[in-house]
Design a protein that fits this description.
By secondary structure, the chain is α/β, with parallel strands linked by helices. It has 2 domains: 3-91, 3-Layer(aba) Sandwich (Rossmann fold), CATH 3.40.50; 97-131. It is built from 7 helices and 5 strands, in the order βαβαβαβαβααα. The protein has a 5-stranded parallel sheet with strand order 2-1-3-4-5, with helices on one face.
C-alpha cells in the first residue's frame, strides 16, 4: 500500500506513519500538482486533515485511490461527492474532541457565572503587565 500524505500532522504521527507504511509527503514536493500528474497513479490511500483536505482536482490525479483517511472531526475540506462517485471510502475521527469541547464549555459557564473574566478585563494591561509576563497574583485584585 502506497500512502500520500497531503500535509504534515504532528511530528510523532508523521514518524509513526512513515515507520509503518511507505509514505510520500505531498507538501514537500516542489510542484505538488505536477508530482500528482506524474505519480498519482501509485497511491492507494491519502492521509489528510480538515486543514489540508482533498479536492476533486486532486482526486482526479489519483486513479488508484481506494481510501481517504482524514484526521479530524469533519470532512468539509474533502470533496466527498467526487470520492463517492469513484467508490473511494472517506473516513474521519469523530468524537476525538468531544470531552475537550465539553470541558471548555463548562469552564466558560463557570467563568461567566463567577464573572471572572469581566472582573479582570484589561487590568493587567492597564497596570503595564501583560499576561504571562510574570507571576500572576493568587487572587484577583479586589477579591478578599
Amino acid at each position: 500500500m502506497q500512502i500520500l500524505q497531503i500535509g504534515p500532522l504532528s511530528a510523532a504521527f508523521n514518524q509513526r506513519l512513515a515507520d509503518a507504511y511507505p509514505v510520500t509527503a505531498l507538501w514537500s514536493q516542489t510542484d505538488p500538482a505536477a508530482f500528482l500528474a506524474a505519480e498519482g497513479g501509485h497511491f492507494d490511500a491519502v492521509v489528510t486533515s480538515s486543514r489540508f483536505g482533498l479536492s476533486a482536482a486532486q482526486l482526479e490525479l489519483l486513479p488508484a485511490l481506494r481510501a481517504v483517511c482524514s484526521f479530524g472531526v469533519g470532512y468539509d475540506a474533502i470533496d466527498v461527492a467526487a470520492a463517492r462517485e469513484r467508490g473511494v471510502m472517506v473516513s474521519n475521527t469523530p468524537d476525538v474532541l468531544t470531552d475537550c469541547v465539553a470541558d471548555l464549555a463548562f469552564g466558560l459557564i463557570i467563568d461567566v457565572a463567577r464573572r471572572g473574566a469581566a472582573r479582570q478585563r484589561g487590568r493587567p494591561f492597564r497596570a503595564g503587565r501583560a499576561v504571562g509576563a510574570g507571576r500572576l497574583p493568587a487572587r484577583s485584585p479586589g477579591q478578599r
